[in-house]
């Protein structure tokens, strides 16, 4: 619950009664371009992010805000994304938070190009870039100015992001705070192009008050005869890695599907067992809701990148 102490299930059970008054509130807020003070407050709690739960450093803070406020944000987000799609604001390389795209489309589209280059025998370098706390430190005034530049002005500061290429020459793929840069490096010209793009991205980050987490930025170099070029991001050299994790799937020459499928199947079986033991109802509506919320996301996370050689893994997931 947020600071209003209204549980989500209360709103769910009383949906017929609260829908009309909430719609009136939303419309008034849209017209006045104001945000209620109560919606700006939040209860801060921590959730486990990675590693051992006994280590305080493995937790991250989240803010629990008012659910009606989140509903209003969702309505605005849908409107803005629809307008962005119509105005072609977001580039094709942006996969995160875009309708019809996901970490799966990001993976398939990018590695479709990479594997074609490697199959041709072309020396290929892939650089994995990670923005540091992108969602926490993104300046709101810059985001607002970008939106206004693309015509998102309502009398209306309410609906007032686009990450620009800044002249990128090589293949770029973006998902949330993770970005991949890829290029053919058989010739010196290709290696220089990648370095120029890295310099442009570093300047973009500086202008927009963002920064890359350079400890997480890695270089993956593929194909025999790769010249093993060294690249820098700012003043620091990017560390080379024999294999790099890409949104839950290994990004080496051979994608290790089994290492992805087995843990996913084990986790979902465990969750299904908890549902069977802990939920007495067997109504279709209840079971489907639980499956959609708790089970299906684990099966869909980057595991559809399959081939006929992965028959056992496909059967395991099905």
Automatic annotation (TrEMBL):
<protein>
    <submittedName>
        <fullName>Mitochondrial enolase superfamily member 1</fullName>
    </submittedName>
</protein>
<dbReference type="InterPro" id="IPR000477">
    <property type="entry name" value="RT_dom"/>
</dbReference>
<dbReference type="Pfam" id="PF00078">
    <property type="entry name" value="RVT_1"/>
</dbReference>
<feature type="domain" description="Reverse transcriptase">
    <location>
        <begin position="53"/>
        <end position="153"/>
    </location>
</feature>
């Amino acid at each position: 619950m947020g600071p209003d102490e209204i549980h989500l299930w209360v709103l769910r059970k009383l949906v017929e009664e609260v829908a009309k008054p909430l719609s009136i509130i939303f419309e008034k807020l849209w017209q006045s371009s104001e945000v209620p003070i109560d919606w700006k407050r939040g209860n801060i709690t921590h959730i486990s992010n990675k590693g051992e739960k006994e280590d305080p450093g493995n937790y991250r803070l989240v803010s629990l805000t008012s659910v009606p406020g989140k509903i209003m944000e969702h309505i605005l987000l849908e409107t803005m994304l629809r307008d962005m799609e119509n105005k072609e604001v977001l580039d094709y390389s942006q996969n995160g938070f875009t309708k019809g795209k996901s970490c799966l489309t990001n993976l398939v589209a990018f590695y479709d190009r990479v594997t074609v280059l490697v199959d041709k025998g072309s020396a290929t370098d892939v650089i994995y870039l990670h923005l540091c706390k992108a969602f926490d430190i993104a300046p709101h005034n810059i985001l607002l100015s970008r939106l206004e530049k693309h015509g998102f002005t309502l009398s209306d500061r309410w609906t007032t992001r686009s990450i620009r290429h800044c002249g990128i020459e090589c293949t770029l793929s973006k998902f949330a705070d993770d970005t991949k840069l890829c290029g053919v490096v058989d010739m010196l010209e290709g290696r220089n192009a990648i370095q120029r793009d890295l310099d442009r991205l570093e300047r973009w980050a500086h202008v927009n008050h963002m920064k890359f987490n350079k400890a997480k930025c890695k270089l993956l170099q593929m194909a025999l005869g790769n010249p093993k070029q060294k690249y820098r991001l700012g003043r620091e050299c990017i560390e080379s890695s024999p294999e790099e994790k890409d949104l839950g799937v290994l990004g080496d020459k051979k994608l290790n599907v089994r290492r992805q499928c087995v843990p996913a199947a084990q986790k979902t079986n465990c969750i299904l067992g908890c549902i069977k033991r802990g939920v007495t109802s067997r109504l279709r509506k209840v079971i489907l809701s639980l499956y959609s919320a708790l089970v299906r996301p684990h099966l869909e996370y980057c595991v559809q990148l399959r081939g006929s050689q992965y028959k056992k893994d496909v059967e395991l997931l099905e």
